[in-house]
Write a structure and sequence with these properties.
The complex is a heterotrimer of chains A (about 350), B (about 300) and C (about 375).
Chain A: H1 9-42, H2 48-58, H3 63-74, H4 82-94, H5 109-144, H6 149-163, H7 166-180, H8 200-237, H9 240-247, H10 252-264, H11 267-288, H12 294-303, H13 307-335, H14 337-340
Helix pairs in contact in A: 1-13, 2-3, 5-6, 5-8, 5-13, 6-8, 7-8, 7-11, 8-10, 8-11, 11-12, 11-13, 12-13
Chain B: H1 20-34, H2 37-54, H3 89-124, H4 128-142, H5 145-155, H6 161-172, H7 174-189, H8 192-198, H9 203-240, H10 250-260, H11 270-298
Helix pairs in contact in B: 1-11, 2-3, 2-11, 3-4, 3-6, 3-7, 3-9, 4-7, 6-9, 7-9, 8-9, 9-10, 9-11, 10-11
Chain C: H1 10-16, E1 23-34, E2 37-49, E3 54-58, H2 65-71, E4 80-89, E5 93-94, H3 100-109, E6 111-114, H4 128-138, H5 144-157, H6 162-166, H7 175-187, E7 193-197, H8 205-222, E8 225-230, H9 233-239, E9 242-247, E10 250-256, H10 257-262, H11 267-275, H12 277-280, H13 315-319, E11 325-327, E12 330-332, H14 335-347
Parallel strand pairs in C: 3-8, 3-9, 6-7, 7-8
Antiparallel strand pairs in C: 1-2, 1-4, 4-5, 9-10, 10-12, 11-12
The chains are: A mainly alpha (about 350), B mainly alpha (about 300), C alpha/beta (about 375).
Amino acid sequence: MRLLPARGGTRARTVTRLFAGHLARGLAMIWAVTTVSFVIIRNIPGNPVLGQYETLIQRGMAPDEAQRMTAALYGFMPTGSLWDQYTGYITALLHGDLGQSLSTPGTEVTTLIGAAAQWTVLPVLAGTLLSFLLGVTLGVYAGIKRSGRLGDVLSISGSLLHGVPQYVTGLLMMAIFATLWPIFPAGGPVDVEFVPGFNAGYLASLVHHATLPVLTYALASYGGWVLAMKSSVATVLGDDFILAAELRGMSRGLLFRYVARNAILPLFTILALSLGMLFGGAIFIERIFNYPGLGLLLVNSIGTRDYALMGGTFLVTTIAIIVANIAADLLYAVIDPRVRTGGAA
Amino acid sequence: MTLTISLPGRRDERGGRVSPRRAFWRGVGRVLRRKRGRVVGVAILALFAAMATVGPLLYPANLPRDDNALYAAPSLAHPFGTDFEGTDVLALVVTGARYVILTGLATAIITVALGTTLGLLAGLHRGRWDTVLMRITDLQLTIPGLPLLLVLSTVWKFESPLEMGLVLGLLGWGGVARAVRSQTLSLRERGFVEAARGLGLSSTHIVGRELLPSMAPYIAMNVLIAVTGAIYAQVGLFFLGVLPFESNNWGVMLNLAVFGGGALTTPAALPYLLAPLLAILLLTLGIVLVVDAMDEIFNPRLRED
Amino acid sequence: MTIDLKGYGDDASTATLARAPGVRVRDLTVVYRTPLGELPALGGVSLTIEPGTITGIVGESGSGKSTLALSLLNAVQPPGRIASGSVEIDGLGDVVGLAGEELRRARGRHLGYVFQAAQNSLNPLKTVGKQVLDLGRSHGVADPRALLREARALLERMGLDGGRVLDSHQHQLSGGMRQRVGIMLALVLNAHLVILDEPTTALDMITQSTILRIVREVHQERGLTTLMVTHDIGVAAEVTDHLAVMYGGRVVEHGPTMRVLGAPSHPYTQGLIRAIPRLSGDPSEARALPGRPPTLGTLPVGGCVFRERCPERMAVCETVDPPRVTHGERTVACHAVEQAHDRAETAGYGPHRLDTANHRTGREELT
């Protein structure tokens, strides 16, 4: 009856294999996304890349130089076969070259994206953390007291907040806390009178401006956590091992921990999905609060028909989400002993 | 000789076998009775359906403007006030519902068709089909839909609600496909498919008579969720102003109120902003209540009797 | 908490036998809330379990045997609840009256419960050893190391590599190993009343007999009172010394295993034995019980619950619930048996008995 699987080497190998699998999947997705992005930019009505090239030629530029200039602007060759254009595009991407912005002439797209990223990443993370803590705590309660009145209220309010699109939440927050009862600024990342840097006035202004966006992120995803945790808790509560632990006289505190830990585990996979959802939300939230993050960058690039910037922003955010997804899957694998130790669940 | 493979139909209280469909409707009745709020949900959805069908007939094709009452405060004549041109906001919300809901319906049809077909295919023909389809579904679920829609809007002008629904449906079938696949797999595991094959029933019969009826409510629930997403995405695109304003709808109202009317700086324009928001909130509430009821019908574990 | 492991064996069993508790269940009624109102799953069960015995509780599914097992821990799961009656356990008093911390402390310390092997009774995220420690913490065990030593000794007693099992997660253990871990967890806090719910269901034959042997040996060595719920009469015949037969939420017959199986009195028990060829002796004589076992909703109200399937049905069965009547070691609840008994008494004969069948090999299941 010595049926225990071998340890040590196998475990390391399982994790490596898992990692390699996720990596391959992620790379395939990234490749698919870049291709989609290429196809879209290639098919924009009026072909702006070719248009730019022709304009330059008309201004008397040599075809070679016009070709190079256009490629620098768009990271995209204006002429040549589809295959050449495609490989050119991919090569430029591999060199980290996303072209130059048209709306802010002379600036690399990567620079603009780098500057905008912090205004998206930090508020999104702060909002996610806040809503995760709040949502999971209340979700446990809603899961345990499913038929109670408070449990009902939590579920319905959770579903509502989860169901309502972020722009509705954002607009309502704005209308209430910036228009009707103006205790927070109506937009922008920081008041202009402060010198950027590590001084109290600037930091306070940053926090003041970030409050409504962060709260909106938190409210938008809070409902999802409540619902996910509630249903996860309901499932775990029905599991035999909980009854078994209860019948062994396990203390309430430990029993609660058994439930909570087992219930929270599947939520890590949702964490990744929620990041994607929050980025979608970032587009609205940054537009509403005039917050200079990646979402606003994307919307503005469309408004100004700055295609290199648009393509670059789309690509970078999508890749970031794919990477976050893989990271979450791996995190899950590390936390769950069933995956970690290579046992068949 | 009639051979019927009974799906997991419930036994009714008297111990007789009832058809899954009748048991289903009985379950619906019970769940609706248990919490009154759910009836409200059904009523709200009915209200919006009515708005979309007969709403535009209640008003003239060109809504009257009242130049003397720009941004008028809510009154008896204008329950939600007027917009920047003096048009009644309530009329705008009611007439705008058709575009919004038509898009939702178009999305629903495409989502059901694509999601169910692909989900069934993946579930019934395991192996390579399954792997490929699920990879595509994964990809579709991973790529954030809204940025993709924004980028697509530069290539494709979504001119009619149907076109809009087509695009949203093409981007949104993943969830339904995955749900259908997992349901198919679980029915397979319980041996229904093999049993039916063993009796020499055709694939069409198995799918049409055995699998789909037992999955229909589950699909319906997922479709309802997909439709909600489509409505929000569409209103959101108009709100962001990346689509040309072809007709009146809630998204256009939001955009004009916020970025044109300054609803967020002048409280006078607030009712203009709040009316479409309220419509969306109400629609969400209706859908949440109905989905909650459906969830309890199909997910007995959440019940706590 | 340290226990002298070398003391295990026959000497120890006589020494600890005094600690094995007796159990007296009185008029226990458990009801389940359903859309049709509250329906009884146990209808006034009375059962006395002598200290130090292994009692089997057999019956078809829906007979209430699992509900009875859970009642001994006052752990009937909602929508069920104990409506009336008492469960007296030596050293604990009436369990039905216990609640909160008192009840929690009784579970595990005094009452050990072993789940069906197919059920996952372990936290999938923690090693077995950590769960033993959690149990120790819950019960205020002063010396966790000693508790772990005891857990390892128990596992080794059951033929496992103790250290390794304590370091394992549930998914790394086979069904038979899990079941032994379950038994270890029921015993590690030194409980002396152990309740096993279908301990061998879903195990292969070899593992089944290993587990049964372990149950019997551990029962002896530790001086336990053991209750084993099973739908498998063969299993019951193999390990138990007393047998309680349940039908429709009632104990219809109770007595020493050999005598209940060898000379069943209640028509239901007779039917059961007759349905199993290897118990009845002649395969051609094997006859299935007519009709179906009752469910909560189809249970007859008033009168004998078995009357609809009973070959010896009489007028009185329709209206009067047969009382339990004890003759010596045996208790039966049946009007027909009672009348036969009365007639035999007056005629000067003892109660009728069937010939003893070869019941030790039988492993047929009731369904």
